TrEMBL record:
Source organism of the structure: Streptomyces chrestomyceticus
Record-linked InterPro entries: NA-bd_OB-fold, Primosome_PriB/ssb
Lineage: Bacteria, Bacillati, Actinomycetota, Actinomycetes, Kitasatosporales
Pro residues bias: start-end ranges: 131-147, 160-169
UniProtKB keywords: DNA-binding
Keyword Transmembrane helix set for record: no
Gene3D superfamilies (alphabetical): Nucleic acid-binding proteins (2.40.50.140)
Protein name: Single-stranded DNA-binding protein
Record-level Gene Ontology MF annotations: DNA binding
Keyword match DNA-binding: yes
SUPFAM superfamilies, sorted: Nucleic acid-binding proteins (SSF50249)
């Protein structure tokens, strides 16, 4: 299979939205803004070019780590598979054609040329098998992606609703 792999350098333009799919897998998404910089000979300084925006999606443990590590405005490097989506809006929304570019992230990190970061390794404690996929057809609003199992089965999280409330914490500190 031929895939377009890209590496983007830019800033997180939105906060990370973190959800669970119906199969229990983690999914995260955020927008990344990238601007080309060039040297302006006349003004003798660096100037920003046009800004491009990309939707970045992450799955499973990468989604959890992105949600815990990335904040709006932070400089990032994103590497993954690029997908161009061409769709037409419904008549009630104007019926216009829209093109969007998404990146299914394989790796996301802070751009260390613009600051420092402290890495913390997360140990895996779960040894449970991966959840099985339901046999339902994909949701028509989302194009299926061949690699993440949730995208193939159409279990895209509902990004239009607010995230579920965290479970209530038990009061006090447990004693031994």
């Amino acid at each position: 299979m031929y895939e377009t792999m890209v590496t983007l350098v830019g800033n997180a333009a939105t906060a990370v939205e973190h959800r669970l799919t119906t199969t229990g897998s983690s999914a995260a998404r955020f927008r990344l803004a990238t601007s080309a910089r060039r040297w302006d000979k006349e003004r003798r300084c660096w100037v920003d070019g046009d800004t491009s925006f990309y939707t970045v999606r992450a799955w499973r443990s990468l989604a959890d780590h992105v949600a815990a590590s990335v904040s709006c405005g932070e400089p990032l490097v994103v590497h993954g598979r690029m997908r161009v989506r061409d769709r037409e809006l419904p008549e009630e929304k104007g019926g216009q054609r829209r093109v969007s570019v998404e990146v299914e992230a394989l790796a996301v990190g802070h751009d260390l040329s613009r600051g420092t970061s402290a890495f913390r390794r997360v140990s895996r404690t779960s040894t449970s098998p991966a959840p099985s996929l339901p046999s339902s057809p994909p949701h028509p609003e989302f194009s299926p992606s061949p690699t993440p199992s949730d995208a193939v089965s159409g279990n895209e999280p509902d990004w239009s609703s607010p995230p579920p409330a965290p479970p209530p914490e038990e009061g006090g500190i447990a004693s031994a």
